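Page 42, continued from yesterday. The earlier attempt failed because a stray header line got pasted into the input along with the sequence. Redoing it now with the clean sequence only.
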Amino acid sequence: MSSLFYFFKESLQGFARNLSTTLGSIITIFLSLLIIGVFLVGGFVIEKLVSSVENEVSITAYVADDASDADIQTVENFIEGLDGVASVGFTSKEQALEKFRETSTSDIIDTLDGQNPLPRSIDVELSDPQLVEQVASAIRGNTTYQQIIGYDTVEQSLKYGQQTVDRLFTLTNYVRYIGIALVALLIFIAMVFINNTIRLAILARRKEIAIMRLVGASNGFIRGPFLMEGALHAIIGSLLAVGCLELVRTLALPKLQSALMFLNFDLSLNTFLFIYAVLIGAGLFIGLLGSAFAMRRYLKV
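This time it went through. Structure tokens are written below.
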């Protein structure tokens, strides 16, 4: 315990000796971890949005107005037996028009002039959205459905949102790759700052270190204050980053969620606690590793 107190006291003195470099190190760690935290929050938000969109993926198979009830029932029975299908429903022309009225303006309804051009459809809900393409291909290949399609081609008669999900996944991957590259660069910059700070601390105490060697101090005892100093830089920087993200969570995100109510990106407190733990752990890793590199290069013990 006395050794830890000594390490802590010496690390604080190191702060005072090289204040400008110390502040630069802390600010660099803070900004690096803050950007890492923002990317983590963004990643969770995008994953949540993709999941919510993915869960809304369904298949609408339009059928011709003159299609017989028997043929429609045959197709429905076929679809119900496919893997990944949760339920199969049917929408009549009247039901389709009613849904259209609910989502359209009166001006658009008036242009219909009492006509109902909307087709009937078989509505397929999926238990596994990842199988949407497989289910859609099976419906396309069904000979009975090919005879009762609601448009000129089978492709036109099938509607599903897999393309939207694919675009979202592509965007997620691009963001992830850019984030990884930026995070690696920021970690490198933070380690360089810590390396320089510890190097200056070693140079400022070189006479004291030489005396400690003469009296037989162990390598661990000599290294301890420098490791503690790097760890303190990291802890202060990470706590500043956590504080900023907590302000974002409590102040910015609720307002953004209320402004964009059609998007669900509300993250739980547990998700943020996980991100905070990652940032503090990453900060300690950066601080200790930067200190270790500096000591290995400049402290020959």
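Notes: The mean pLDDT is 77.
Reminder to self: strip header lines before submitting.
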